[in-house]
Specification:
The complex is a heterodimer of chains A (about 325) and B (about 500). Helices cover about 40% and strands about 20% of the residues of chain A. With about 325 residues, chain A is an alpha/beta fold. Chain A is globular, with a radius of gyration of 21 Å. Helix content of chain B is about 75%, strand content about 0%. Chain B is globular and about 70 Å long. Chain B has about 500 residues and is mainly alpha-helical. Classes of the chains: A alpha/beta (about 325), B mainly alpha (about 500). Chains A and B meet through strand 2, helix 3, strand 7 and helix 7 of A and strand 1, helix 15 and helix 20 of B.
Amino acid sequence: MRIPVKAVGAATALLLSTPAFAGWEPTKPVEIVVAAGAGGASDQMARMMQAAIQKNNLMKQPMVVSLKGGASGAEALMYMKSSEGDPNKVLIAYSLIYMLPLSAKIPFNWRELTPVSVIALDQFVLWDNSAGPKTVKEFIEAAKAANSPFKMGGTGSKREDHVLTVFLEQKTGAKFSYLPYKSGGEAATQLVGNHTEANVNNPSENLEVWRAGQVRPLCVFDKERISYTSKVTDTQSWADIPTCKEQGVDVQYLMLRAMFLPGKVTAEQQAFYVELFHKVTQTAEYKDYMEKQALKPIFLTGKDMVQFLEEDDAVNKALMTEAGFVAK
Amino acid sequence: MEALGLLLHGFAVLLTWKTLVLMMVGLVLGIFVGVLPGLGGPNGVAILLPLTFTMDPTSAIVMLSCIYWGALFGGAITSILFNIPGEAWSVATTFDGYPMAQQGRAAEALTAAFTSSFVGSLVAVLLITFLAPMISSFALKFGPPEFFAVYLLTFCSFVGLGREAKHKTVISMSLGLLLAGVGMDTVSGNLRMTFGSAELLRGINFLVAVIGLFGISEILLTMEERLALRGHAASISLRVVLGVWKDLPKYWVTLLRSSFIGCWLGITPGGAIAASFMGYNLAKRFAKDSESFGKGRIEGVFAPETAAHASGTSALLPMLALGIPGSGTAAILLGGLMVWGLNPGPLLFVEHKDFVWGLIASMYLGNVVGLVLVLTTVPVFASILRVPFAAVAPMIVVSCAIGAYAIQNAMFDIWLMLGFGVVGYVFKKIGIPLAPFTLALVLGNRAEDAFRLSMIGSGGNLGVFWSNGLVGSITTLAIVLLFWPVIDGLLGRVGWTRRI
């Protein structure tokens, strides 16, 4: 299957080297690679983009979502790394691109891929069961007073959820048992079933169970509150959730959602996708999704994006080192 | 009667030309793979799964489940006509089905097989329709200890109730568990047994292993035996069909008993294979003249086929409501659900009503359409077996290779599949059962994670597996089943019961 693609790629390159400028376009279905399990935040976002592109006719070829959540997402990273020069695969990346190479020594470096654009920043929220403590203060007190440590559900080990749990422990002095599940969806279900006391899921992962009144958001790990003020549940909007800092727990973390192509694609191919995802961020579907899932809109590309990635990489590396999650 | 309303909604979702066409295609493909020795349900579904990746989930599952029903029907055809069980669960059908065919009663035997298959799945579908909503609220009670207890129960029941030698089952299962450990360990976030290879990073894919273990190894065996296929002419006339149906009420006890056994084994993961043997053995045990079994008795076809279909169908219930597959094919469908972006589990019934009830409605329709289809197309399918093996075998190998490649678009998986083909061949030669191996490969990881999460949660206290009534009773049942042969022997000695 790969050979014809390369041939087409080469033919396109030849065409482009001639003075007559012809914009590159995918010639076969584009695969949007998700580095997480089904139903997680990345997967939902990929499906939103698939729908936005299809409904608004932004691309002639169809887009298919390809889930590569094996090995905690490492499968997707290695898949992208090995697809060098293939312009029909685009990765929807998040902080795992910095963390996984550190914690599991995966031979992967995001600098080997072709950056397209940063399309959103994702929040983290501290949630507990709706039958549990009602405020951060009560929650921390209950956690300290408990005979056995509170169980904190999360996705994967030595990753953003785990890092947040470690920093929560450092700032409050409470102890948690961190339970690494396979997906945010599973962490949500387990909190509803009272098998864990809390989780630090992204808004999108707990949205449905929040609306069903099964869990309660305690605080958001950001400098400022989420900006969306329309009601999500009967009584609350995203903006009603206090920041953790307001509540006396100064822990902050934002996670990037960014698109990457495999390495060694042409500048024209890169330009096509920059344009495509820029158009996606203009669609009603994207705007609606950002609000529904409480994401921070952002659009970075080119030099700005690389600079953002370098800084973000440094922040994540520092956090991972401090939490003691860097493999020797 | 909420279930009835939802079911009608399911039919509404289903009744579009597109889904109906997919349903017919699925059934025909399914009967085809069911008839081919060595392919069969799990392989057929596994190979055709990637075709559905771009479909919407409801169409995809309708097509795949119809392949599954088709394979269940088709498996009976070769068992009866050629004494070759096309499916593992059709083995018991050959005991009386083949003698009937030799006596020139092939049409009667086939009608009996298809009809009882239909009855078995109908009972199971009714069960799913009315029990499913209850099961999903029950499922929220499942935390790590409960999940581990269920996995333990599955493993123990395979060892304790399996027909094979115990030590061989344990060997097979241990090897499966070992291979399940390859790749990223979710709990510690470290890599295990990858030896620095990027290919092994994602672990050993269960589907790749299954295609090799069953498909390729069967080809190897058949090549070695130079299997000559000689069939009996089969055509079904309306008179024979009506004759069998007229006699059907006489066997209601057998049908009901087999349905019950099938549903029970399908829900507690024991698999369709065990169910068909159990159905046959029980019918034989309760018959007044048990000597006539094995000599062409129609009841000997009714009993195993009903049980096989009831368990094959009800195995989908724990898969949907708990995310735990009851059979090999259900495990593959589980993988499919995740690919289509559906999280099998308690909330599936709440969040994806269209999908769940569309699937349940398709079980009703698929079975009715399937029955008509098999009754009318038997001669056509039987003629597949007149094609020389030399021509069929390469086609099977090619389709296996495409299937293995398409799962993760990895060339490495084809080599892995061929490797597993050899492993499967050796296992069959030295009599090590393959089922425990595949079971351990698909569940091993999850069982380990569930166990370690339970231990983290309880601070290393094993008492967590008896911490409430639910988990306690499942764990205890698991241990009882593990030592069942010993317990059964003791009970037998005091004259309590006799081994089934």
